[in-house]
Amino acid sequence: MSQFDLTGHVAIITGSSRGIGKASAWELAEHGAKVVISSRKQDACDVVAAEINGKFGEGTAIAVAANISDKAGLQHLVDATRAAFGKVDILVCNAASNPYYGPQEGIADDQFRKILDNNIISNHWLISMVAPEMRDRQAGSIIIISSIGGIRGTPIIGAYAISKAADMQLARNLAHEFGPFNVRVNCIAPGLIRTDFARALWENEAAVKARNATTPLRRIGEPEEIAGAVVFLASQASAFMTGQTIVIDGGVTI
Question: Which of 26, 85, 100, 160 is labelled catalytic?
């Protein structure tokens, strides 16, 4: 059996109606997992779940809308997953917010709080909801999609970068707490990826051309290029890895 085989495993992926989350859900299903598609809008989730079921068979995916800012909604997401599949083996905290681009001094208090609440507190909530059963089973993988913004300074997405650095520390803390129970917590830090979420950073062709000139691989990334790392962290292939951050950025940070 392949170390990457996820047959019999159940994964929740937030923000999975598009972008990195959607690509990750597809790749997890490709490797045998049952997947729960979640984002704010039920109809968008339904479309992705239907596509995955059409490819891998009915019952592979379900769609459960949830807003990451709503704690009760996240609990419903977890409860609906257990009702459908009986358990949660894999959690991918992918959904995030970034309502502000510009100098740190210009961000409004409500924008700063929204970023911190949605990118850190919501992950804490969701992890707290699934961790007890993982500890009881002594098996589980929690994956947080962070960003290279969390390991470098920025004059444009400062609050977002602060939240992503905090996600890395959240993973390190929880890796200590959950490690004795064989529950692993890791992060992925993507560079610039061609998603709707990051559109403001890549739709300017001149800016991307300048960025690519200093990127070793000379291009920005695609969502599918993050999804493979999600499968790695979800599977036995990474069984001895916890508390770490995998940087996938085309070489930008070197």
Answer: 160
